[in-house]
Amino acid sequence: MQRSPYTPGEVTTFLPGRETHMRRLRSQMQHVADEGAFIARPRVYVGSRGVGKTSLLRYAQKVARERGLATVWITAGDAGLLPVLSAELQRLTRTWHSSAAQEIAALVRNLEFSLSIPGLGVSSGPGQRPTSVEAPGQALEALIGATASALHKKGGGLAIFIDELQAADRIALKALAYAWQHLRSQEGDDLPATLIAAGLGHTSDVVTDAATFGKRFEFIRLKDLSREAAYEALSGPAEGLEVSWHHRAVEAVLDRANGYPHFLQLWAHAAWEAAGSPDPGGTITAGAVEASEDEVLEQLDVFYRTRWGKATPAERDLLRAVAQQTSPTPRRADVAASLGKPTTAISMARRSLMDKGILDSPGRGLLSFTAPGFSEYILEYEGTED
Ligand SMILES: Nc1ncnc2c1ncn2[C@@H]1O[C@H](COP(=O)(O)OP(=O)(O)O)[C@@H](O)[C@H]1O
Ligand SMILES: [Mg+2]
After folding, report:
1. What is the pLDDT of residues 18-57, one digit of tens each?
2. Is the shortest distance between the CB of 237 and ligand 1 below 6 Å?
3. Residue 49 CB–ligand 1 contact under 6 Å
4. How far apart are CA 204 and CA 164, in angstroms?
5. Which of 21, 246, 286, 339 has the CA that lies 20 to 30 A from 176?
6. Do the domains spanning 19-221 and 311-382 agree at the CATH topology level?
């Protein structure tokens, strides 16, 4: 009996299909660590929940550490992001006994002070900013600049990772965009720093709504896995334990998971257990996949039901309308028209469903569900109720 090597619901370090992204991350971290480079464009990996964003971001953090960079990891959410970020930056300097540590502590207080003044962080025109106190963006610029330069003197650099960026508060997004925009122009200084984030599919809307400089962020969409990569995701971990998948079993899982990493892990894990958690030399057969089917379908039912349960009645109308379209990526305007409404009338429900990770916008003016099979679920079980 060997424990399943699959990772449903957990980040994974085995990332087939992401080789190009991993290569770029490695060369970027090398650039920062070896040449003291400031990476001018924050990079944001966007995509559906369950597509593998956090796993890739953790990989980037691992590479940064191996390169000797100091790393800060934040998951955006309920609390304001800037207080958490400044506390993390100060934590990096906790063991230092230099004047740099004192300077950074002062800059942290400065940032916290700028946040304590109501209205300061909220979008105000350049002319309206008080002159005696700094706005959070300026305070953050100074703090990050001082931290990166102090780390550089110690032979390192700074790598900041922010997960769930779409959930960050506007003040923080604005300040981050401002700080990064201004730090890039401090050319000639050695400011080894990089900012890498991940967020749901509409993160670019959220960021550019909050900050004009947000356009300078680089948004990279993570897609579902190709059949080849999905095949590797199944066979790789099994091979490591000297277990093989029968080709019909592989086909069965690939057909069911549709390249969606979250489902792939669920099916693979269940098949592994249904095969009796094989010893080295064992095989996973199509029979094992079949035997695990009821259990997985039950989990998928919970998965869909939970998402449906999060939607308000108005949002459910929109979900049904999307499910009824023939295209898997219908145009927003067509969906609205099928409800007899102008496009603007569905924009609130659409945004809310994106924040909840149920709907995605795979391209300009397009809509899609974030998980395969949700459309069928709605049409089959929920389309005619309530
Ligand atoms: N490249 C990959 N191949 C196979 N499985 C993956 C891959 N990336 C992530 N996973 C798996 O997919 C699921 C979702 O991963 P996670 O990184 O949490 O996604 P996200 O942050 O986008 O929600 C997890 O079960 C994880 O183990
Ligand atoms: Mg995640």
Report:
1. 999 999 999 999 999 999 999 999 999 999 999 999 999 9
2. no
3. yes
4. 12
5. 21
6. no
Q: Does domain 311-382 have CATH number 1.10.10.10?
A: yes
Token output for 100: 């740099």
Q: Tell me the average pLDDT across 264-293.
A: 97
Q: pLDDT band at residue 187, thresholds of 50, 70 and 90?
A: low
Q: Whose CA is nearest to atom 3 of ligand 1?
A: 15
Helices (H) and strands (E) in the chain, counts: 15, 9
Q: How confident is the model at residue 127 (pLDDT cuts 50, 70, 90)?
A: very low
Average pLDDT (64-80) is 95
Q: Given a cut of 80, is residue 118 above it in pLDDT?
A: no
Q: How many CB atoms within 10 Å of residue 385?
A: 8
Q: Whose CA is nearest to atom 26 of ligand 1?
A: 11
Give residue 130's pLDDT: 45
DSSP codes joined into one string, 160-219: EEEESGGGS-HHHHHHHHHHHHHHTT-TTS---EEEEEEE-TTHHHHHHHH-GGGGGSEE
Domain segments of the chain as ranges: 19-221, 228-307, 311-382
- Nearest in space to 330 (alpha carbons), one of 317, 339, 321: 321
- What average pLDDT score do residues 136-155 get? 95
- Nearest residue to 58 via CA among 7, 2, 94, 108: 7
Quick check: CB of 110 below 6 Å from ligand 1? no
> Roughly what angle, to the nearest 10 degrees, separates helices 203-210 and 170-183?
80
Task: Please state, rounded to an integer, the average pLDDT across all residues of the chain.
Answer: 92
Report the atom number in ligand 1 closest to the C-alpha of 265. Answer: 25
Is the domain defined by 19-221 classed in CATH 3.40.630.30?
no
| Torsion sign over Cα 160, 164, 169, 174 | positive
Instruction: Answer whether 11's CB lies under 8 Å from 58's CB.
Output: yes
53 lines ligand 1 (CB under 6 A): yes
Q: DSSP character for 45?
A: E
